[in-house]
Amino acid sequence: LPHRDTSMLQLFVVEFTGSAVISAIISTHCSGLIIGLTISTITAIMFPLEMACLNPAKAIAVNIVSGKINRFCWVYWLAPTCGAVAARLLMVAVDKIEIHPDDIEQARLAQRLLSDHSD
Q1: Full-model pTM
Q2: DSSP 17-82
Q3: Torsion sign (Cα): 107, 27, 42, 84
Q4: How far apart are alpha carbons 110 and 108 in whole angstroms?
C-alpha cells in the first residue's frame, strides 16, 4: 500500500515512470548488472512514496492471497503495464529515426557559423 500522503495520481505517475525506465533499459539489452542496478535505484527512489510494486502480477497476487482488494489495486496493475507499453513505443519510434552523416556535418557547420558571428 502507498503511504498516507501519496495521492492516486502520484502513485500512478511513479509506477508508470519506474516501469517505463526499467522496460527501456531491458529492451536495450544491457547487462544484468545494469538492469539490476536500475531496478535497485528505482526501487530506492520509489519506496518512500509507495513501496515500489512495479509488478502487476505481484500486486494482484497480494490482493488475492490476503482476500482483500484494496482501492489502489487498479493502479498497480494499470500503471506498470502502460509504462512498459509507452517505453516500448518510444523505443520503436526512436529506432525509426534516421540521422545521416551529412545532417550532422551541416549542424556542426551551422553551429560554427553562429558561434563565429556571436563573438
Answers
A1: 0.73
A2: HHHHHHHHHHHTT--HHHHHHHHHHHHHHHHHHH-----HHHHHHHHHHHT---TTHHHHHHHHHH
A3: positive
A4: 5
| Structure confidence at residue 109 (pLDDT) | 87
Residues near 22 by Cβ (< 8 Å), separated by ≥ 6?
35, 38, 39, 42, 54, 84
> Which residues, in sequence order, are CB contacts of 116 under 8 Å at separation 6+?
none
Q: Which residues of 8-26 are buried (b: 16+ CB within 10 A; e: fewer)?
A: eeebbebbbbbbbbbbbbb
Cβ count near 37 (within 10 Å): 13
d(CA 118, CA 49): 47
Mean pLDDT, all residues of the chain = 85
